[in-house]
Amino acid sequence: MAQHIWLIGMMGSGKSTVARHLGERLEWEWLDLDEMISKQVGTSITGFWADLGEDEFRDIEIAALREVASGASRVVATGGGVVVRDDNVAMMRSSGLVVWLQASPKVLVRRIGAGADRPLLQEGERLATLTSILGARRSAYDGAAHVSVMTDDVPVGTIVDRIEELWNEFA
Predict the structure, then answer these.
(1) Structural domain boundaries in the chain
(2) How far, in Å, CA of 95 to CA of 112, rounded?
(3) Closest to 36 measured CA to CA, from 72, 59, 61, 5
(4) At what angle do helices 156-170 and 15-26 cross, to 10 degrees?
(5) Torsion of CA 56, 62, 67, 71, to 10 degrees
(6) What is the pLDDT of residue 142?
(7) Cβ atoms of residues 78 and 8 within 8 Å
(8) How far from 35 is each of 51, 73, 129, CA to CA, in Å?
(9) Are residues 14 and 103 in contact, defined by beta-carbon separation less than 8 angstroms?
(10) What are the CA-CA distances from residue 94 to residues 77, 88, 121, 145 (Å)?
């Protein structure tokens, strides 16, 4: 089975940016799972979520994970909530290295900005919402990840260097 590098973490933790740079470094294909799903369903994640809800989105997400996991080695930026289903976690852990990109809520707010395209940020104060989501998911991220890398105010090149080192130890 192909070995992948799965990047997990909160929205705004840097998953898509790191995936692109790491993919280029390793000369692997990289992809953003939410973008893949958005193309498959023909609408934005926010629009899909609003129309059909989280459960339907999570069902499509696991199908997309299966498709990716069975393909060639890739660096994959997952959606922030991918860890809420145990089947997703098991699939990622059995098909590669799972890296939790950590960032503090204050940094997440700064990176996300208005957050108009984030389904979970449609209501309420962003810092409080992100702090609450992170608190609820922290143990799931920790349990899913083989390793974690802090991304607060760390240059993307340094993050990529660290993940490449971790990959070389893992592979």
Answers:
(1) 4-160
(2) 29
(3) 61
(4) 60
(5) 150
(6) 96
(7) yes
(8) 17, 18, 23
(9) yes
(10) 17, 10, 31, 11
Q: Are the C-beta atoms of residues 103 and 151 closer than 8 Å to each other?
A: yes
- pLDDT (tens digit per residue) in 37-70: 999 989 888 888 788 888 898 899 999 999 999 9
Q: Are 82 and 8 in contact (CB under 8 A)?
A: yes
Contact 107, 12 (CB under 8 A): yes
**How confident is the model at residue 1, as a pLDDT?**
47
> What homologous superfamily does CATH list for 4-160?
P-loop containing nucleotide triphosphate hydrolases (3.40.50.300)
Residue 44 has phi, psi (to 5 degrees) of: -70, 160
Question: What residue has token string 């059909």?
Answer: 52
Question: Measuring CA to CA, how many Å separate 74 from each of 11, 22, 107, 169?
Answer: 20, 10, 27, 17
**Residues in the chain, pLDDT under 70:** 1-2, 113-124
Tokens representing 32 are 């953003």
Q: What is each CA distance from 102 to 38, 45, 72, in whole angstroms?
A: 24, 22, 26
* pLDDT for 48: 83
